[in-house]
Amino acid sequence: MIIGWCFICVFAVLINKVSLDVKVVGFTGSSVVLPCSSIQHDLKPQDMHVLWRDKDSETIYDLIEGKDSLETQDPRYKNRAQTFPEEYERGNFSIKLSNLTHADAGEFNCFITHSSYSNQETVWLFINESTVETGNQSTEEENQVPETQSNWIKTLLICVCLLTLITSIIALSTVYFKFCRNKSHQAPI
């Protein structure tokens, strides 16, 4: 039984490390926030490197030791990508990408590195036609809805997997103990 609980604990830790990609929807001509955060909030931004890369591995934005480093920024992102320096201390290294075009759609990667910690987050950006013509102005909150759905799906998946695992362990344990009890009650022939 102890082995079963150890397995559950290891499984829970491993499933927590597996994260679903974040999906964000933006509209042509508007802005969107691409989320990226460190799960370790006790790290100082001046001791970290945060690198944002697009689907072609081009530089979107770099933060080296807590400071902007835009020398290698791809010209497509010049004056379009911005960070939130007031959020660095909280481990939030999200970027805001403005003036979206269909060419921006695709995979974005955020790499956070520290001497004792590293993390990579993948964000998928989907671009829809602007809704301004119909009078519906999109907001950044609307753009974040897919991330909330992704988190909800991740939580549901973890719960279902853990529930299935626990049920299987209980069922197998019950069968095993009944088998052992029946075997010990049988008289030798």
Automatic annotation (TrEMBL):
The Ig-like domain covers which part of the protein?
A: 29-124
A GO-annotated cellular component = external side of plasma membrane
- Membrane-spanning intervals of the chain: 152-177
- Per the annotation, which location comes first and is thus the protein's main one? membrane
UniProt subcellular location: Cell membrane
- How does this chain sit within the bilayer? Single-pass type I membrane protein
**Cleavable signal peptide:** 1-20
Question: GO annotations under biological process?
Answer: cell surface receptor signaling pathway; cellular response to lipopolysaccharide; immune response; negative regulation of T cell proliferation; positive regulation of T cell proliferation; T cell costimulation
Matching InterPro entries, A to Z? Ig-like_dom, Ig-like_dom_sf, Ig-like_fold, Ig_sub, Ig_V-set, T-cell_Activation_Regulation
Q: Which residues form a coiled coil?
A: none
Q: Which domain of life is it from?
A: Eukaryota
Tell me the keywords, alphabetical order: Cell membrane, Disulfide bond, Glycoprotein, Immunoglobulin domain, Membrane, Receptor, Signal, Transmembrane, Transmembrane helix
Q: Know the name of this protein?
A: CD276 antigen homolog
Tell me what gene encodes this: LOC107713011
